[in-house]
Amino acid sequence: MVAVAGWWGWRTLEWMWLKPKRMEKHLRSQGIKGNPYRIFFGDFKDSAAMTKQNQTNPIAISDDIIPRLLPFIQKTINTYGKKTFMWFGYMPRVHIMEPKLVKEVMSKNFVYLKPKSNPFGRMLVGGLGIYEHDQWAKHRKIVNPAFRMEKIKLMLPAFHVSCVEMINSWEKALKESKEVDVWPYLQNLSADVISRTAFGSSYKEGRKIFQLLTLQTGLVTQALSTLYIPGSRFLPTKRNMRMKKIVKELEHLLTNMINKRVEGLKNGETNNEDLLSILLESNFKQGEIKGMTIKEVIEECKLFYFAGQETTAVLLLWTMVLLAQHQEWQHRAREEVLRVFGNDGDPNFDGINRLKIVTMILNEVLRLYPPIIEMTRIIEEDMKLGESLHLQAGTSLSLPILLLHHDKEIWGEDAKEFKPERFAEGISNATKGHVSYFPFGWGPRVCIGQNFALLEAKMAVAMILQRFSFELSPSYAHAPYRIVTIKPQFGAPFILHRL
User: Fold this and answer.
1) CATH of the domain at 413
2) Rounded to an integer, what distance in angstroms lies between the CA atom of residue 190 and that of residue 491?
3) N or C: lower Cβ tally within 10 Å for the chain?
4) Alpha carbon 83 to its chain's center
5) CB-hemisphere CA count at 13 Å for 379?
6) Could you tell me which residues come within 8 angstroms of residue 350 by beta carbon, excluding any fewer than 6 positions away?
7) Dihedrals φ, ψ of 485, to 5°?
8) Range 462-491 average pLDDT
9) Residues 6+ apart with CB under 8 A from 288
């Protein structure tokens, strides 16, 4: 008994102190700097407290948003330089700030792995977002057909219907007040689009999924704001019980829809009009489901529903905020839209592809307000990164997208300013071929839904510009904050003018 207790004591000491201190010494020997290791929490509590403090009050719209969103990383880099690390619990997390190293990390799919997600995180989404190795490759192959451009083009009518409904809602709201908080409308728009395109005639059930995922996002974000204690998800707390209930409700809704489609496939029915049908048909061979289980299909549905809704809603929101602030670009974009589609012409695929100014604007918005502001990877064996950086197994890597997108050494002294002309000759020319701009990720794991999100965003922007001019309301408080993506903490009231 004494021997067992001694063994466990040694293992605990090794895990919580000796190994982190060895890793710290190894990183410092290579000129990588950071705070000394502190047992168990590391920098986690300080980072969380600093973020909470910096998100108490709004900022000026011209202010740097990094101190609000990634204050601890910024402080670390300001203190120690770009070659830095921080402590995420007992694990060192090295910040990768060189585009050539970002490229190497992102291009080696199964070398730099996604961290094993916090169990609470898996209660929100799973699927391709967390899979690795053969499981990821199999699922990506099955899901790919649903997001090919020829399939997405067929979804334009659904995009259009949802945009018309939102614009009609704004016109009704304008009868009562010129001020409209556009944020809930944009959330509903992207939820409605993904509901229609994912579930077709079942899109009303899709709206229920959106509501449940919105609730779950808030609960999971609360859970992830503290360091995970193994086994804590099994405690019968009010939050844990609510999250588990939502998981069951989501699985019930999706299982019912999937079973109906599977039954149709068995009876010889085909339907290439929505993502769920395309996904199932790609996975349906010789009269039965192959490749993915029904549970795995559910996880993929949750992922593309959640990711599709989040990404487009925040992209449209920050586009409107920046165009309201920069009226000259709003005017230029509207002139282009009216030249291509007229005052009341419905946007079509060929016309959308000719919207060069709108595309430049969206690229610049994604640079300044990328939906995901940081990506992390982990290595499971010792390896060399770049020409001289040696990393030990268990080291975590941070790719701080927001910092790279705002880096003056990469983008120039005006890096924090809204200048869509950067992208006049395309992304490759703007980045000079470097991986310094990756709002949808990069390499083999680039976001599978980026074409879907951008096409939806271009149609929505075009239809908004056709019908409204807009400016920020005096009551608008600029307060971007992070709940998975960058959201407006206090809403987004605009003054809308019907054209």
Assistant:
1) 3.30.43.20
2) 16
3) N
4) 26
5) 19
6) none
7) -110, 175
8) 95
9) 266
Residue closest to 266 by CA, chosen among 282, 290, 293, 289: 289
Overall average pLDDT of the 236-259 stretch: 85
**Sequence-distant (≥ 6) Cβ neighbours of residue 293 within 8 angstroms:** none
> Is residue 384 within a helix (H) or strand (E), and if so which, with residue range?
strand 383-385
Cα–Cα–Cα angle for 114, 115, 118, rounded to 5 degrees: 130
171 and 498 Cβ atoms separated by less than 8 Å: yes
**Is residue 239 a part of any domain in this protein?**
no
The answer to whether position 58 is within a domain reads yes
For the whole model, what pTM was predicted? 0.91
Please state whether 346 falls in left (phi above 0), alpha (psi between -120 and 50) or beta: beta
- Residue 156 CB neighbours (<10 A): 18
Tell which residue, 196, 204, 192, 297, has the closest CA to residue 254: 297
The pLDDT tens digits of the residues spanning 48-72 come to 899 989 998 999 998 999 999 999 9
| pLDDT digit string, tens, across residues 416-461 | 999 999 999 999 999 999 999 999 999 998 998 899 999 999 999 9
Residue 305: its pLDDT value, please? 76
Is position 179 within any domain? no
Contacts of 233 (CB under 8 A, 6+ apart): 119, 120, 123, 240
- Kindly provide the b/e burial profile for residues 452-490, where b requires at least 16 CB atoms within 10 angstroms of the residue's own CB: bbbbbbbbbbbbbbbbbbbebbeebbbbbebebbbbbbe
d(CA 434, CA 356): 22
Let me know: does 179 contact 316? Beta carbons within 8 Å: no
Q: Which residues contact 290 (CB under 8 A, 6 or more apart)?
A: 283, 284
**Domain membership flag for residue 17:** yes
SS (H, E, C) 169-234: HHHHHHCCCCEEEHHHHHHHHHHHHHHHHHHHHHHHHHHHHHHHHHHHHHHHHHHHCCCCCCCHHH
Domain count, the chain: 1
At 60-108, the pLDDT tens digits run 998 999 999 999 999 999 999 999 999 988 899 999 999 999 999 999 8
Could you list the residue range(s) of the whole structural domain that residue 106 is in?
A: 1-117+373-420
